[in-house]
Structure formats: C-alpha cells, structure tokens
C-alpha cells in the first residue's frame, strides 16, 4: 500500500533523513541565511525586480556582470553537453559556439548533436 488515503507508517517503513544544507568552501554564511527560512521569490521576475530596484536606488546590481556571465556560461555548457553527450569545459562556450547566444544552439533538436560533433 502506498502513502495515499488509509496508508499508515509502520515500523518497517523506511525513514527519510531531513535535508541539510552544506555550503561551498568559504561560503558558510550562506547556510545561516538559508536556515533563517526567509521565503523569497525566485525566477526571472524576481531577478529583474532586483535589478530594477538597484538601478532606481542608484546602487550596484546584486550580481556583477562577471558572475552573471560565468553562470550563463555554465548553463550553456550544461545544455551543450546534454545535446552532444560530451564534456564541455570552461571556455568552450565562446562566440564560435552555437550555444553562445541561445540555449538551444540555434539548431533544431535533431540537428544539435550532429552540429556539435562536427
């Protein structure tokens, strides 16, 4: 029996350990912020709102262009690797890469692997 209506936990039901946050080296403060439990929206709308607030307030953007670029390079590399089935190293997503300006590599899905492996 599953955990639907009428299901019960028994002594033989495996327990599930609670999730715990582990920070990257040198980022221990992040775990503390996460543990505070503040519920903040995420996604594109929240990101744009933070940028607009910083521009309107005359403050620096919450993330530097360098950091944003590194994040986008990582995301593009993940997409390119997924399509090609190969490892994509840092620096391979450059202006010559079909994934430099679009996550779909400007290619129809059935042609992506062929183009990346050419």
Description:
The protein is mostly helical and 118 residues long. The longest helix is centred in the middle third of the chain and has 20 residues. The N terminus is likely disordered.
Provide key terms for this protein.
mainly alpha, extended, 118 residues
How do you describe this structure in short?
This protein has helices spanning 28-35, 44-56, 65-84, 109-116. It has 118 residues and is an all-alpha fold.
Q: In total, how many beta strands?
A: 0
Main sheet summary: none
* Spatial separation of the terminal alpha carbons: 51 Å
Helix run count: 4
Uncertain residue ranges: 1-11
Q: Which structural class matches the secondary elements?
A: mainly alpha
Radius of gyration: 21 Å
Helix content: 40-55%
Elements, N to C (H/E): HHHH
How does the overall form come out from the CA principal axes? extended
Mean pLDDT: 76
Quote the beta fraction: under 5%
Helix and strand arrangement:
Blueprint: H1 28-35, H2 44-56, H3 65-84, H4 109-116
């Amino acid at each position: 029996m599953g955990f639907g209506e009428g299901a019960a936990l028994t002594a033989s039901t495996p327990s599930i350990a609670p999730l715990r946050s582990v920070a990257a080296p040198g980022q221990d403060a992040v775990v503390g912020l996460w543990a505070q439990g503040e519920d903040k929206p995420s996604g594109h709308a929240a990101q744009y709102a933070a940028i607009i607030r910083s521009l309107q307030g005359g403050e620096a953007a919450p993330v530097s262009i360098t950091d944003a670029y590194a994040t986008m390079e990582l995301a593009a590399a993940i997409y390119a690797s997924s399509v090609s089935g190969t490892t994509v190293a840092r620096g391979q997503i450059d202006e010559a890469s079909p994934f430099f300006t679009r996550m779909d590599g400007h290619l129809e899905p059935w042609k992506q692997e062929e183009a990346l492996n050419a």
